Amino acid sequence: MPIHPPRQRSTGNSERPGVQQAESALVEHYPRLVRLAYLVLPPPLGRHRRVLAAHAVVQRALPGVRTAPEIPALSRIPAQTRGAAPRPGQDGAGTAYAWMRLRVLRAALAHEQRPRWWPGRLPVPAALRPSLPAVWGLRLYPRAGGAAELALDQALSAVPGAVRAAFALRLLEELDATEAQALLVRAGATDPAGAVRAARSLEGADRAGAGELLRSGEFDPCVLQTRPSDLLRRRHRMRAVAAVAALCVLAGGLVALTEQGASAPAPGGGARSAIAPALDPATLLRTAADEWADTSRIDFTAWPARGDLTGDRALLSRALRAWGRLPDGTAVSATPGTLAVPPAQPPQLLYAGEVDGTAVVLFHDRGVRVVRYAEPRAGSGTPALDFARTDGADVTTGAALVVSRDGDRARFLMAPWISRTTTRDLLAPDSPARTLQVNADGVTAAVPRPSPGGRCDSWPVLQLRSSERIVENHAFLLTDLGDLAPVHLTFTPGPAARAGARQPREATSSPALLAWARTACSLTALRGSGVRAVNNWNFAEQRLPESGTPAQWLCTRADTWQGPGRVLVQFLPPSSSLTGQGTVVADERDTALCSRFGQHVLAGTRWRAPSGHWYVLAAGSRAVSRIEATGAVRESAAGTTLAVRAPREAPVELTARLREGGSLSAVR
User: Fold this and answer.
1) How far is residue 151's CA from residue 132's CA, in Å, rounded to a whole number?
2) CA nearest 11: which of 72, 101, 68?
3) pTM of the model
4) Beta-strand relationship, 487-492 and 602-608
5) 400 to each of 153, 485, 486, how far by Cα in Å?
6) How do residues 66-121 score in pLDDT, each as one tens digit?
7) What is the Cα–Cα distance from 4 to 94, expressed in whole angstroms?
8) What separation, in Å, do the N-terminal and C-terminal C-alpha atoms of the chain show?
9) CA gyration radius for the chain?
10) Over the stretch 49-72, which tens digit does the pLDDT of each residue have?
11) Which residues of 454-481 are buried (b: 16+ CB within 10 A; e: fewer)?
12) Distance between CA atoms of 186 and 70, rounded to whole angstroms?
């Protein structure tokens, strides 16, 4: 059982710990400090660079002989998993650890800050960051976690570094809000109070569960998996290094002969030269054709380069130049939360080919973005660049990309692990899926898109099946909501008697298809908002007054690639039609409701019985033990549902009690 030392505050001693004490604290608590740095560092670095940067931050935190004093005001020591934690005042171990923790935190937060002289639109190159330790020829990744760890990683990637720091300090270091805020102030974080508040909301109802997730292998940069870098590209680089060395010797002689009055470089030339290597077609990363079947990371990084124009250097050069310079005359679009900036490193080539008279190139920007370049093969049409955020993609959300759209039809590029491709209509749940043709490059035949107008007479979706070679042989649904990456649709069934919480599952079963048939049209409100996945949660069933017929309550949650979600709570009364649309009774944005971090929900609506009487109906999730109505009517009911007669316009407030204690207000 972990031993927690008593809290002690600094006595105000201005002496910093000695170098030997600091080194002892670093060595003893090295894994904990590296995990803290890894969580605070910016996710756009990518997992490999983030791992190395975390180790660099901790190793560089060791003070030099002349380091200025920096005694932190709080010196609480984290609980240890092995043996008792050192206490403040015990040979200075406690103070030394807190001092080192402050230096690590300050250095990790600094990674999101740009040098004052650096151009604001451009990412800071890795060359300007600490470079040791370095790894040659290998890529390092923490062990992949499950869906819960992935959801938490997505949520953390959508908040600033100060919020991630506050989250880690509270759950890993077990500091209270006041201590965490004070430490963030000393570390130079912006808006420490706001960061602590945001971290507390990110914790959700299951604070202990979130802490366990942070301690998992997904966030442990000391327990790593490795795979080789691009071997062919590495060989070319070695040859290039030898050639560059020879050129440098020659250039050194030529520089001595140049005139001192040579013209100065053009403004911005330094910034362009910094990204020039990333815009060279020769440096594009290309994944081997069968790597997807031999890796534990099944996402866009496992896609091979496909298409009949992957060898067209001129096309690739135009696409990369357009991306690097965003010239006038190029139509540029980006999903919310996606930066339309040049690549900091050479991107990965996913596709280059001709589709419906247009040359299309798809790039993957090191796990963060997918970029689509399109230019007409004939005529004088305008080139287009589309940016979409895709970090954290998996077997389903990394299964397809839109390669072209033409009016009400679209073509998709399939992931190499898709073994069967079909289509179906969500508004025809009793109709079988139909086979969709896919060519040798993985591009599908043109398929209908959901109507972009106000009509909702059909809702086409892709029903895909993954290959048995990755032990993920299952079918799942994707739909086109206007972004480059189609949206993954899932379903969570209602609570079963004496059963625990149900988990989201693929929306291919009869209950899932019936639920989506009645709620598909609500997806129209989510178009173009950078949605990653949408889940329909059947959180309650209610017997209606007077007739006793069952009605369903669904929470439709849309998770974006940024992390924040949007919730639509829908009431589905009995209907004679399989596609009878429900009523949206609540719409809330930027919320954790109906997710793993917001498992409790209460909603209400007005409903008119066939007799003409009006009722207030309310329903809550499985943890609700009692619902109360106050205002124009006062009524309560044990359990997860309530129905009370009330005038149509009567003001009524709904609250609920939870079995484990606490109250819940109705979502609006």
Assistant:
1) 31
2) 72
3) 0.63
4) unpaired
5) 22, 7, 7
6) 444 444 433 333 433 333 334 333 344 568 888 889 999 998 888 876 555 455 44
7) 12
8) 43
9) 28
10) 888 888 988 888 887 634 444 444
11) eebeebbbbbbbbbeebeeeeebbbbbb
12) 9
